[in-house]
Every structure is written in C-alpha cells, then in structure tokens.
Amino acid sequence: MAAVDGGFLSVANNRVSILSERIELGEEIHVDRARAELEEARGLIGANDEAEKRVRRAEARLRAAEKVSSGVGH
Fold first, then answer.
1. What dihedral do alpha carbons 41, 43, 44, 50 form, nearest 10°?
2. Which of 1, 37, 50, 73 could cysteine-pair with 26, CB 3.0–4.6 Å?
3. Is the whole-model pTM more than 0.90?
4. Half-sphere exposure in the Cβ direction for 20 (13 Å, CA)
5. Which among 62, 16, 15 has a CA at the least distance from the CA of 38?
6. What DSSP assignment string belongs to 55-70?
7. CA 26 – CA 67 distance, rounded (Å)
8. Angle in degrees, CA 1, 61, 15, rounded to 5
9. For residue 14, what pLDDT band results from cuts at 50, 70 and 90?
10. What does the longest C-alpha to C-alpha distance in the chain come to?
C-alpha cells in the first residue's frame, strides 16, 4: 500500500505505472502521527483553500498505514 498525492496512474497489460510528485509507502507512515495530522487538517477546514487538500492527503496516508499494519494487501 502507498499514499499518492496527485499525479497520474496508468494500468495496461497487468502493469501499473504511477507518476506523482509525492508517494509514501504505507510501512513508512507512522499511524499515530498520521491521525494527528488528519485531526489538525480537519480543524483547518474553512480557514484556507489548502485545508481540504490536507484532509484528503492525511486520510490517504492514514488508510495506507492502517492497511499495512493490519496486514491487508499482503
């Protein structure tokens, strides 16, 4: 599992290609830190245009980290 922030994903001939500015493997993400970042980002909703992007990014990171820690996808 990985959290990808923006970019492009292509699937062809049983091969996946990802072009992105930012990608984090689930096993590299600290779950407690990701939860704290999500809560902080949620608290910023309405404060600026970047708040919703931060929430989506934090949610993706948390999902990737939790799936790795629960053994999903292995």
1. 30
2. 1
3. no
4. 15
5. 62
6. HHHHHHHHHHHHHHHH
7. 7
8. 30
9. very high
10. 44
